[in-house]
Design a protein that fits this description.
Bound molecules: alpha-D-galactopyranuronic acid
Strand order of the largest sheet: 27-26-25-24-23-31-30-29-28
Strand content: 25-35%
Distance between the termini: 49 Å
Length: about 550
């Protein structure tokens, strides 16, 4: 046991002002002159004179670096290319997906880094998606200088939460033997050995504490070799299912929270970390514990906040309402599998992620969809042996794929998409429909209502309490809470939607989306609470009072 001097990787933060050029046409080659500047992170299509335009935004900056480097990009949209000194380094094919590139940056001097962000729709981001497709660089960008032999992978899994043991899987960049040292929370180091570039051990964390939403205790692991060091925060926690229940650390937990888009009218998908933190603080203060990260990879900074603040997360791949024949093509499956694998690896060590999701509202009422779901499930499971896996369905009783996943998740909209000429409102249908749906679902799996809600325009109050009023939304969501907290075999609800979110601004669906926003937020897009926010807060407060007494 000893303590040593660490070889810390030199990190170069690349956020800030970049040169910028834009074209609505394809480009034959990268521009040589940049007449404009743009901030990173940032969405160029929210900045004049590019507001709402679709085309190619080229970001350029100089960087003083040399040797082997790792470039990290926290997410871009809708797809991007990365160039270094005029050489194509790699692609960011999927919006929101964090990407990393390892390459030789050459001599230690000034180099040119370019991110080409194309915000035109593509095969994995269609114009009918009910959330705006932003261009630009959504999150932080940095480079790290790597030693020749570097620690490539570091996965930490809770093995036994009662004993505080974790499995550590690590890989070096080369298949060789190497001495290593491991320490937890700055305490004594343990000597270890990589054999043929790999390490796979199970070890007890000294003085361990469990992670949970109420007590989000994190541990810090440092793994170092003679020439490299990696540090990771992790939490010791156990997620399981027992019949209809979700268990966290052996105890039943009911999930309550919201679907949340990484979106703000002025920042688009490049929301500042302060806004993310403010959102999560509102959720926690209300009494919620769960966010469904709809409908794409979450920013690493968001997951770090959830780990630290104690919020449970469903993370999912990018896709929205895919139907046959696209759903059954080998290309679509390949893209989903690639996304699922990348995402599972990228967010592996975040204790906040308890459910890994994929393919929102695909047509799972078709028998041919079974293989698609099976293959994506297997892809995730081959990397992550512990998390619960699910997809959110809008096929309800007709779904043919529910036996293939760990958690059954449904997006019903009683009270909204069931309008009739006879009634101003259908609030009375909400509880009964949810009960009916719950009763029809398999008894041996947790059942989640992953979406439910209705549109309300901020500030619109009306004595008729009709659809689009704050009053109507408030009444519907009160019924949803009643359903969740009465014993109906429902393990959790994520209300659609946390905050109003920019959606279609073109196309035939704009008539469904007043102002070009999905207005089902319980907060508006600037996070101003609608009536329902207070109503839900009061309900949760009362329940808490009831539990304590
Ligand atoms: C679906 C979809 C959401 C949103 C919602 C709505 O359930 O998953 O992204 O479009 O409907 O508001 O209609």
């Amino acid at each position: 046991m000893r303590k040593g001097i660490f070889a810390v990787r030199e990190k170069i933060i690349l956020d800030g002002l970049w040169d910028f050029a834009f074209s609505e046409e394809n480009m034959d080659r990268l521009p040589e002159n940049f007449k404009d500047v743009m901030t990173v992170p940032g969405c160029f299509d929210l900045m004049e004179p590019y507001c709402g335009k679709r085309g190619i935004g080229v970001y350029h900056r100089k960087v003083a670096v040399g040797g082997l480097v790792r470039l990290f990009i926290e997410g871009t949209g809708l797809q991007s290319q990365v160039w270094f000194d005029g050489r194509l380094i790699g692609q960011c094919p999927y919006a929101y997906m964090p990407e990393e590139f390892v390459f030789d940056a050459g001599a230690d001097t000034i180099h040119e880094l370019v991110i080409v962000s194309d915000n035109r729709y593509n095969d994995s981001f269609h114009p009918n998606f009910d959330f705006f497709g932003y261009g630009g660089v959504y999150g932080t960008v940095f480079m790290e200088k790597l030693p020749e032999l570097w620690i490539k992978k570091l996965f930490i899994t809770t093995e036994d939460y009662l004993a505080g043991t974790v499995r550590i899987q690590s890989e070096l960049s080369q298949s060789c033997n190497a001495n290593a040292f491991l320490s937890f929370d700055g305490k004594d180091e343990f000597p270890l050995e990589f054999e043929n570039g790999r390490l796979d051990i199970t070890i007890k964390v000294p003085d361990f504490k469990l992670w949970s939403p109420d007590e989000p205790n994190l541990h810090r692991l440092v793994l170092r070799t003679d020439c490299d060091m990696r540090q990771e925060n992790f939490g010791i926690r156990h997620v399981a299912r027992d019949g209809r229940k979700i268990l966290l650390n052996g105890k039943e937990i009911k999930l309550f929270g919201y679907n949340r888009h990484e979106s703000h009218p002025e920042f688009g998908a490049a929301t500042p970390v302060t806004l993310m933190a403010a959102d999560l603080r509102m959720l926690k203060k209300q009494g919620g514990n769960f966010i469904r990260g709809s409908h794409y990879p979450q920013r690493r900074s968001f997951l770090e906040l959830c780990d630290t603040m104690g919020v449970l997360v469903w993370e999912e791949t990018l896709s929205w309402g895919t139907e046959a024949p696209e759903l059954h093509t080998p290309e679509f499956l390949q893209v989903q599998k690639e996304q699922a694998a990348k995402l599972t690896e990228a967010s592996f060590n975040h204790p906040s992620i308890i459910i890994r999701g994929f393919m929102n509202e695909n047509d799972s009422s078709l028998p041919e969809t079974r293989t698609v779901i099976q293959e994506i499930y297997r892809t995730i499971r081959s990397i992550d042996s512990k998390s619960l896996i699910s997809f959110a369905s809008n096929r309800y009783e007709k779904d043919l794929c529910l036996d293939l996943v760990d958690v059954v998740s449904m997006n019903p909209y009683p009270g909204w998409y069931d309008a009739s000429y006879e009634e101003i409102d259908t609030v009375d249908k909400v509880y009964t429909r949810l009960k009916e749906l719950s009763d029809a679902m398999p008894a041996d799996k947790p059942f989640l209502v992953t979406e439910i809600g209705c549109e309300a325009l901020y500030g619109f109050r009306d004595p008729l309490n009709a659809r689009w009023t704050e009053e109507y939304q408030s009444e519907v969501l009160a019924e949803v809470c009643r359903f969740l907290y009465e014993d109906n075999g429902c393990a959790g609800v994520s209300i659609w939607l946390f905050a109003d979110t920019r959606s279609f601004v073109t196309g035939p669906q704009i008539f469904l989306r007043a102002r070009g926003f999905n207005n089902k937020g319980v907060l508006d897009e600037y996070r101003r609470p609608k009536q329902a926010w207070k109503k839900i807060s009061d309900i949760l407060e009362k329940l808490k009072g009831g539990q304590e007494s």
